[in-house]
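Next comes this protein:
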Amino acid sequence: MIIHPIKPLYSQNSEILILGSFPSIKSREQMFYYSHPQNRFWRVLAAIFELPIPETIDEKRELILSHNLALWDVLASCEISGSADSSIKNAIANDLSEILNNSKVKKIFVNGKTAEKYYIKYLEPKYKIKAICLPSTSPANATYSLDKLINEWNIIKNSN
């Protein structure tokens, strides 16, 4: 069983929560979200907000917080082989109440179908907030080009 090691990223001004499934090996090593260089998350967000691609953790943190976003994952712990979402077993969900009680979050987006599956199973019944599923920024989602991801993820900019 692997315990999620990264704290949620949010501020009292956060209005939109983006949830992944569970951090990759690279993200767990770096102790920050979407740290695998092939993951397109930071390129997509930079593009929709018309910013340079953030390189450092501080720059990534600033991008999230300056656009009133919050970032975390659906799962608090699970058994997982490597970084493969398809291998997740014995999942336990995170408690979103810390973020929801200390921010202005009203909208939740999930990054990919695995995050959506676990969100619907564990968190939607508890918090009664429907999440909007966006296509995964993972390199495993080869059917989506960077341009197509940017187009789909643009809903975040328009929701703020």
